[in-house]
Automatic annotation (TrEMBL):
Involved in targeting and insertion of nascent membrane proteins into the cytoplasmic membrane. Acts as a receptor for the complex formed by the signal recognition particle (SRP) and the ribosome-nascent chain (RNC). This is Signal recognition particle receptor FtsY. Transmembrane segments: none annotated. It holds the Pfam family SRP54_N. It is an enzyme of class 3 (hydrolase). GTP binds at residues 123-130, 205-209, 269-272. GO terms for biological process: SRP-dependent cotranslational protein targeting to membrane. It comes from the Bacteria. Belongs to the GTP-binding SRP family. FtsY subfamily. It comes from Pustulibacterium marinum. It catalyses: GTP + H2O = GDP + phosphate + H(+). It is a peripheral membrane protein. Signal peptide: none annotated.
Amino acid sequence: MSLFKRIFSSEKKETLDKGLEKSKDTFFSKLSKAVAGKSKVDDDVLDNLEEVLVTSDVGVNTTLKVIERIEARVAKDKYVGTAELNQILREEIAGLLSETNSGNETEFSVPTDKKPYVLMVVGVNGVGKTTTIGKLAYQFKKQGKKVVLGAADTFRAAAIDQLQIWADRVDVPIVKQSMGSDPASVAFDTLKSAVTQDADVVIIDTAGRLHNKVNLMNELSKVKRVMQKVVGDAPHDVMLVLDGSTGQNAFEQAKQFTKATEVTSLAVTKLDGTAKGGVVIGISDQFQIPVKYIGVGEGIDDLQVFNKFEFVDSFFK
């Protein structure tokens, strides 16, 4: 189908295919058992397919939507063979993802009418938040953008150190204070510095949880308010980083963070080490928040712009 024509470069596509290999192999192993001995997509096959999707971490609500779409196709086409099921799945899931993701992006970019473009990154410890920030800084710098990092996760000494390592590796400036400093103060200083330096992109790291009694929602709201004293409409994007390998736990994290702050985009990491890649489909659909980036390997180039057609093509290849 022309819908799934090659968009990525062959090298990028190969990385995506490899990164989703475990998820794909596990899914197809389950799918082949679900349709064994069947030639037609009937109620039994749909029941089995429902179980396959749920156990592949697509999530119950999204699975029901996919099954409904396939039921409608079967009713319309009168006869659908199990041999066609994979193609139908690809088309219906791509259609579902289209409702949340524009899906045309292939390169790292930021709007040119926002300068500096302020990206605030949220997520719990251990999901790959700092690594994602470092890889984003690398990609933006590679495009000739001037990037400044802000170490506003001040409740964990390791977070400041890790961000410093990435700043050194990518060779971009970082604004930081000592551990325990006010995160809003760091964010304020970072934006002031970025404006002075005429930076294009600012990426602010924030705490995933707080070691004192301050409510996370209040803390993130304060960081936003203080940033707006420097850049009136900051932040332009609040990106939640989720660890794809945690499957259903990632849904729970998304639920908590979307309650705590207005999340406008998602990055799903660690998809290469897991069979739970279906979580990208479920989270994107359930929270109606676009997935911007996915992590499909440990290399500095292995953070990719999420493209729904390429993702679905690799997942159901």
